[in-house]
Amino acid sequence: MRFPWLILLYVFFPFITFAQNGTISGIVLNSESKKPISHASVFLSNSAVGTATNENGSFYLSDIRPGQYTLVVSILGYEQYNKVILVGHEPIKLNIELAQKAMMLREVVITSSEDWKRNYEKFRKAFIGTDENAKNCIVINPHILNITYNSTKRVLLADGDEFLIVENRALGYRIKYLLTEFKIDEISNIVSWESKYIFEDLPGSESQKKKWHDKREEAYYGSQMHFFRSLYTDKLTQDGFKIYHMYRYRNPDKPDEDIIRQKIQMYKTERRIDSANFWIGLANLSKWSHESLAQPALFSWEIMTNSEQPGVYTLHFTNYLYVVYTKKTDDVYNRDIYRPLDMPNYAVSVLTLGAPFALFDSNGILIQNAPLVEGTWAMNRLSELLPVDYIPDQK
Largest CB tally within 10 Å, which of 87, 243, 316, 390? Predict the structure, then answer.
């Protein structure tokens, strides 16, 4: 009899299913000469899956958790290759051609060493974070960054032509970033970036790995990834989440944030202290004049449906989605996050859709029309980041 252990498992544990992870293989060529390109980095962005092409330009990625990923191929001197791939159980084979990058002269911006350090600290706080984990994040090669600051527009820009390497010694990861764009707009108070990145495990002793494991679990539970995985498996209540429709109305007494900042800066420059204090008082007002939650809590099926693609789901809701995680508290005061008087100080995040719907995959990752996020999740930075294929302990 072939595979008797399989038959025994199905007899005694009929609920067990055997998931098969996916594979991606291929060859990377020069688009003009058609010659193979060796030593190119090939990885699935935001995951722990990556390799380099061999002397024949070939690569092979295996044991990939099903879901939607961006495949990235990068090597100095060539245009970066990006392809969105839906990984299932069937092998994927690709022929990839890279075009040589045209030489472009970068504008030379002369700054002092003190200016660069000051701008770098702004970048580091916004990109990595300021929490306890962030204190254990080490940027190995910060000087590969091109950083500029426009004092008139109060905008900081950063990018890099090679991998920015960060060691997160709180979670035990080395993360390599291809940072194509990073922006801090101090007037609108918005931080945005575009990057592709891959995770590698740091070496460590067994006791150190145990500490990293515990910190990774702590970062996962209650995270946005955890929420979306709980949503499509219909385990919100079991996993500690509650969701509500939220209603908000703008405070007519509070001007836009950029106007407030401009006024404060102008009156401080002119040393008109009373006028500056008046606008500082307006800045301390809540953005909202009325907020409330619709009762009762929502079910998963009220905000989520299957899409036409297997393993991809549609998120849809009206107004705002209020997400409560009841297994963690949030002691950071945020005047713009509503909390009912009878609700404990649970971790709260508020989602706002900028399109009729958003898409997320079975890894719990938003892949299209990501909503604006406020509250607990908005505070998360690199210091809390986990790879999309992270698998927590089953509890």
Answer: 87
Please give the structure tokens belonging to residue 51: 């390799």
By CB atoms closer than 10 A (0-12, 13-18, 19+), residue 159 is buried
> 186 near 160, Cβ under 8 Å?
no
Tokens of 118: 């000051």
287-328 per-position pLDDT tens digit: 888 899 999 999 999 999 999 888 899 999 998 999 999 999
* Contact of 347 with 325, CB cutoff 8 Å: yes
Q: Is 344 exposed, middle or buried (0-12, 13-18, 19+ CB in 10 A)?
A: exposed
Q: Are 364 and 228 in contact (CB under 8 A)?
A: yes
Cα first-last separation, the chain: 36
Distance CA 242, CA 294 (A): 12
87 within 8 A of 22, measured Cβ to Cβ: yes
Q: What pLDDT, on a 0 to 100 scale, did the predictor assign at position 24?
A: 96
For 138, the 3-state DSSP assignment is strand
Q: Determine what percent of the chain is predicted with pLDDT higher than 70.
A: 92
Helix 257-269 to helix 273-283 angle, to the nearest 10 degrees?
Answer: 160
Q: What's the pLDDT tens digit per position in 85-119?
A: 888 889 999 999 999 987 655 555 556 778 889 99
Question: Beta strand pairing status for 58-64 and 22-30?
Answer: antiparallel
**Would you say the C-alpha torsion 164, 373, 150, 124 has a positive or negative sign?**
negative
The answer to whether 297 touches 323, Cβ cutoff 8 Å, is: no
H or E stretch covering 325: strand 320-329
Distance, in Å, from the CA atom of 41 to the CA atom of 206, rounded to the nearest integer, reads 29
Q: Say which amino acid occupies 264.
A: I
Residue 252: Cβ-neighbour burial (10 angstroms; 0-12, 13-18, 19+): exposed
